[in-house]
Design a protein that fits this description.
The complex is a heterotrimer of chains A (about 300), B (about 270) and C (about 375). With about 300 residues, chain A is mostly helical. Chain A has 2 domains: about 35 residues, no CATH class; about 220 residues, Orthogonal Bundle (MetI-like fold), CATH 1.10.3720.10. Chain A contains 13 helices and 2 strands, in the order ααββααααααααααα. Chain B is mostly helical. Chain B is about 80% helix and about 0% strand. Chain B is globular and about 70 Å long. Chain B starts with a helix and ends with a helix. The C terminus of chain B is likely disordered. Chain C has 2 domains: about 240 residues, P-loop containing nucleotide triphosphate hydrolases (Rossmann fold), CATH 3.40.50.300; about 120 residues, OB fold (Dihydrolipoamide Acetyltransferase, E2P), CATH 2.40.50. In chain C, about 25% of the residues lie in helices and about 35% in strands. Chain C contains 8 helices and 20 strands. A 6-stranded mixed β-sheet of chain C has the order 6-7-8-3-9-10, sandwiched between helices. A 5-stranded antiparallel β-sheet of chain C has the order 13-12-11-14-20. A 5-stranded antiparallel β-sheet of chain C has the order 15-19-16-17-18, with no helix packed on it. In chain C, strand 17 and strand 18 form a beta hairpin. In chain C, helix 2 packs across helix 3. Chain C is elongated. Classes of the chains: A mainly alpha (about 300), B mainly alpha (about 270), C alpha+beta (about 375). Chains in contact: A-B, A-C, B-C. Chains A and B meet through helix 1, helix 2, helix 4, helix 5 and helix 6 of A and helix 1, helix 3, helix 4, helix 5 and helix 6 of B.
């Protein structure tokens, strides 16, 4: 027998009322649109023409796709056309390079922060968060200036007699990677720093007390224990790297474009929404695939380690 | 000896990374005060002309205004969703709670292009395209997961008996929330609002997809300039964005009244 | 104290609380009289805090009734019950001064500012914290926080005061002082109080009556003296104070008296009013301070045993002996006051232990 008081009934109502804003947003602005995106990718493209603007009303002469059609032709076209395939391969290649570089930069930096004294630690954390507090376009602009042929970097390299004449740095793979890493690394560093700080510090002390050198204590204790947290950081990095947009667009060249930059190109320049949606969905699919594969390989290895 | 060499390398590495993280921004700020389109240091001809131009150009000022409208809306959306959700997950147990909680955080890990493109297709269908709301909705998808996380930590840290004590002394649930819980989580609410503001004011890709000429935010105006015609004016525009962020940070710190906070949390 | 004509303030009847498959409180009933200081004690997880929270309105009962001054409270939301609660963590509002904390309940009741101030000053002087009104909780010591938490609910003049392990967060020395202060304050204000603790010492020193709970059930209700001297169950005997208990078989001796034989070696004879079924299993329990030790053999044949001292625990005012008896199969605890600071026996000593009939507590339940 349950006696339900008034406040009980109120709280039961409250329990679901409090979730309604979240559910509303997730359903109508996140999951719903993603589903609709998939639906749009299955429309037939309405050729390409400059006067597509005017809404998806399906009237003759307007619309970005043909209403009422169901077709996989956008996906077929994507995987058959060498142009799209090259872009996809470059996207994966770039994501791979960016991920490797980001992890190589982030782990030592996170460890550096972890080892730093309280004041230096605060300073370093602010430095790391700073790029995230500012506009990514500011960073891109700064890099454009820095990496220019007559920019500081080239001048410094020439001045130090490392090179004889300026090298082209901006609008190359180098500048794309440098900027993308700068955009992702703050997340990665913060996640790894948090993982390191979550470790029991006495474990390392215990290892050193048992005779391990600092380096050995790091290699046998700290590093393996920080792997699960670093793995999360790695996944975040890959997902963001696959979605690279600003870096290739503003610091790359026409040969260095990604799937993400192809989305607005198809959508706005070619006025082909169906294709744009298909590509967006393919990016999403790639992310899922990579996360899934990594989870199967690395995830199970780490779980075993920490079980 | 070997140890100190290792240590120096370690610090050098740290220094290099600090440079990497700060230099692009420093250069951008210097440019905004520089006289020419190219950065020549040292110079003694520092100028505010780019800022003057920024503030006297209607297009830029409209962009600034649009940015402020969108970010205000984003704060409202993110706080409503974030606060309700954090409260729900702290107070109640749900059948699918763990899964739903993870799901509530996924939007922040979704790249902007995906959110932008999917909302674009829906915005056209629903007639929301070209409205501030849809940009703010997109931005709040990135903001509310952060608000949830920040508030959840704060709420979990609260002594549950505080609210019970208030109720026991005659406060209704609503009174207890407003007189006890809310004041105590206020710092985190402000931090959440700050996150929402910073995300929205700087976000560019969603604004590019979902904005129109009438709702162009500042980053959306900076973008073509950056792509086709480098001018220190974009540095000035960026400078304004940074200044806004700093002002909001300071105001938030003031509102939170850090000194007092430290005082009563030292228990 | 608890005579029939006294007014019942709180009436708990057949109260049960289930959490899923777990029954935390099992069909318990008890009354609380006007001005009484009632203790509910038991080990953690015995359901005492759940009982307290149901009375306060922080949990709703699965079944049963809670009445205060005759009014059924089951469906009254907690903010409408006039019951004050002091939490183990004090739950002082950290963002409000002591003054604001004390005024809080009055403010929620819509009391005017002037009246609030007057009442706050009154209760703060009662707990001797007049000078601390402007401080924040973080600036107070543990004992002061405790007093503010108390003042804050006393200001509301509740029908009933609930205290949930109020001294658990204080260090030992302060706890002992606060115990006396709290008892004095309760008598001064004359407020009906229900106090939950796992600390038997607190209960014995402060309570008018004690309710002992175990595993969701009430085992015994009575004055501290009753519960200590006449525990009705093995659990109560062991939970309140130190004791040595043994299981034995009842028999009738040749002289007609009832006695209990333990391990066929030790014979315990309680006072004559006890009667047992022959061959039934009986627990006997003897308090350590009632046991006398001697190096010489005593004249009595029953209520005595011999053993070797296994451990001596020095406690300043007295010593505690752990004695191996019955060839090392059982342990007997005995204490000895040491006014001159020297213990009479040391580890390894062979001793005779003996006690009086009226010091034997027999428990026939399991």
């Amino acid at each position: 027998m349950t006696i339900s008081t008034l406040s009980d009934r109120l709280s039961r109502y409250n329990k679901f009322f409090l979730l309604s804003p979240l559910l509303f947003f997730l359903i109508f602005f996140f999951a719903g649109p993603l589903l609709w995106l998939f639906r749009v990718s299955l429309y037939q493209s309405r050729g390409s023409s400059g006067f597509g603007i005017g809404g998806a009303d399906g009237k003759e002469g307007g619309g970005f796709y043909v209403e009422g059609t169901w077709t996989l032709e956008n996906y077929f076209k994507f995987f058959q056309d060498e142009y799209f395939r090259d872009i996809m391969f470059f996207t994966v290649e770039l994501a791979f390079i960016v991920t490797v570089v980001t992890m190589l930069v982030s782990y030592p930096m996170a460890y550096y922060i972890y080892k730093a004294g309280a004041k230096l630690k605060t300073f370093l954390l602010i430095i790391v968060i700073l790029p995230k507090l500012s506009n990514m376009l500011v960073l891109v602009y700064g890099l454009q200036i820095l990496l220019a042929n007559n920019g500081w970097i080239n001048k410094a390299l020439v001045g130090l007699n490392i090179i004889d004449e300026p090298v082209k740095l901006v609008y190359t793979l180098f500048s794309v990677v440098v900027s993308k890493v700068l955009l992702i690394a703050p997340y990665t560093i913060l996640v790894i720093t948090a993982a390191l700080h979550g470790l029991d510090r006495t474990l390392r002390d215990a290892a050193m007390g048992l005779g391990a050198s600092g380096t050995r204590a790091f290699l046998t204790i700290t590093f393996p224990l920080s792997l699960p947290g670093s793995y999360v950081a790695l996944l975040i990095t890959i997902v963001w790297a696959l979605g690279a947009f600003v870096s290739p667009l503003l610091l790359g060249n026409p040969d260095l474009q990604t799937l993400a930059t192809e989305v607005p190109k198809q959508t706005f320049e070619n006025v082909n929404w169906a294709m744009g949606s298909a590509i967006a969905f393919i990016i999403l699919g790639l992310m899922f695939l990579v996360v899934l594969v990594f989870n199967l390989i690395i995830g199970s290895a780490i779980k075993w380690r920490t079980a | 000896m070997k140890r100190s060499v290792g240590k120096i390398t370690f610090h050098l590495f740290g220094l290099l990374l600090i440079t990497y993280f700060t230099l692009p921004m420093v250069v951008a700020v210097l440019m905004s005060f520089g006289p020419s389109r190219f950065l020549r240091l040292p110079t003694n001809k520092w100028t505010l002309k780019w800022y003057v131009e920024f503030f006297s150009t209607t297009k830029w000022m409209d962009g600034l205004w649009n940015s402020l409208i969108v970010s205000s809306l984003t704060i409202v959306f993110a706080l409503i969703v974030g606060m309700a959700t954090a409260l729900a997950f702290t107070k109640y147990k749900y059948k699918w709670g763990a899964g739903l909680y993870t799901l509530s955080l996924t939007p922040v890990f979704t790249p902007a292009v995906i959110i932008a493109m999917s909302l674009l297709t829906v915005a056209y269908r629903t007639g929301m395209h070209g409205h501030y709301t849809i940009i703010a909705v997109a931005h709040s998808l990135w903001a509310f997961p952060l608000v949830i996380m920040v508030l959840k930590v704060s709420l979990d840290g609260l002594d549950k008996s505080l609210e019970e004590a208030a109720r026991g002394m005659g406060a209704t649930p609503i009174q207890a929330f407003f007189t006890v819980t809310l004041p105590l989580i206020m710092p985190s609410v402000l931090v959440g609002a700050l996150f929402a503001f910073i995300i929205s004011i700087n976000e560019f890709i969603m604004a590019l997809f979902l904005g129109t000429v009438d709702t162009e935010t500042l980053p959306r105006i900076i973008y073509p300039v950056l792509r086709y015609r480098l001018t220190p004016l974009v540095a000035a525009a960026s400078g304004v964005l940074m200044l806004l962020t700093v002002i909001v940070l300071l105001v938030a710190a003031r509102l939170v009244n850090l000194g007092k906070l430290v005082q009563y949390q030292r228990s | 104290m608890n005579t029939e004509e006294q007014k019942v303030v709180l009436e708990v009847k057949n109260l049960t609380k289930e959490f899923g498959d777990d029954t935390a409180v099992k069909n318990i009933s008890f009354d609380l009289y006007d001005g009484e200081f009632l203790f509910v004690i038991g080990p953690s997880g015995c359901g005492k805090t759940t009982t307290l929270r149901m009375i306060g309105g922080y949990e709703s009962p699965s079944s049963g009734e809670i009445r205060v001054r005759g009014q059924l409270l089951n469906n009254v939301p907690l903010e409408k019950r006039n019951i004050g609660m002091v939490f183990q963590s004090y739950a002082l509002f950290p963002h409000m001064t002591v003054q604001k904390n004390v005024e809080y309940g009055l403010r929620m009741r819509g009391v005017s500012k002037l009246a609030r101030k007057k009442k706050a000053a009154e209760v703060l002087s009662l707990v001797e914290l007049e000078d601390y009104a402007a401080r924040y909780p973080a600036q107070l010591s543990g004992g002061q926080k405790q007093r503010v938490a108390l003042a804050r609910v006393i200001a509301l003049e509740p029908d009933l005061l609930l205290l949930d392990e109020p001294l658990a967060n204080l260090d030992k020395r302060l706890r002992d002082t606060m115990r006396i202060e709290l008892k004095k304050l309760q008598e001064k204000v004359g407020i009906t109080t229900l106090y939950v603790t796992h600390d038997q010492e607190e209960a014995l020193t402060m309570a008018d009556r004690i309710v002992v709970m175990h595993d969701g059930n009430i085992l015994q209700v009575g004055s501290p003296k009753d519960v200590y001297n006449d525990p009705t169950s093995q659990f109560v005997a062991g939970f309140l104070g130190e004791t040595s208990s043994f299981q034995g078989k009842a028999r009738v001796a040749s002289d007609g008296f009832n006695e209990i034989v333990i391990d066929e070696a030790m014979i315990v004879r309680p006072i004559a009013t006890n009667s047992f079924q022959a061959e039934s299993s009986v627990f006997v329990s003897i308090r350590p301070e009632r046991i006398k030790l001697s190096k010489e053999k005593q004249t009595q044949e029953v209520n005595c045993t011999t053993g070797i001292i296994d451990f001596v625990s020095y406690l300043g005012s007295h010593v505690f002996y752990f004695i191996n008896i019955l060839n090392g199969t059982a342990l007997l605890k005995a204490s000895e006051p040491i006014p001159h600071g020297e213990a009479s026996f040391k580890v390894g000593d062979f001793v005779h232990a003996y006690w009086q009939e009226d010091n034997v507590v027999c428990i026939t339940d399991k």
